[in-house]
Amino acid sequence: MDIQPQRTGGEMEEIISRYQNMVYGLALAKTGSPDDADDVFQEVFLAYFQSGKSFREEEHRKAWLLRTTLNMSRRVTASTWRKKNVPLEEAPETPVLFREPEENQVWAALSALDEGYRLPLYLFYF
After folding, report:
1. Which residues contact 60 (CB under 8 A, 6 or more apart)?
2. pLDDT at residue number 113
3. Number of domain units in the chain
4. Do residues 68 and 42 make contact, with C-beta atoms less than 8 angstroms apart?
5. Is 69 found in the same domain as 16?
């Protein structure tokens, strides 16, 4: 089992505070989503923490963080899940169809009701 050197808390806090805006901004620009940018941000600094890399110059550390951010952002944006996923506002309306015609009629009637009446009647019939 390989034991990798781990960074001290103070060192990580300093690195994160120095590069957090750069990493988050780049992740946000590449992914276009604040939620995905948050995930990339965490993954980048987790990878840095676990890597145990030492850098001769600060520019090398910065370049490594930028490259890692780009790679992880690309992984998020190229994922199959993201390509097939659309926000609920943009999802096309697909009709709900049941096996029995009576169930379709009841569903149509329930859909026309106010939301407060819909759930109890839905639970009763289905």
Report:
1. none
2. 80
3. 2
4. no
5. yes
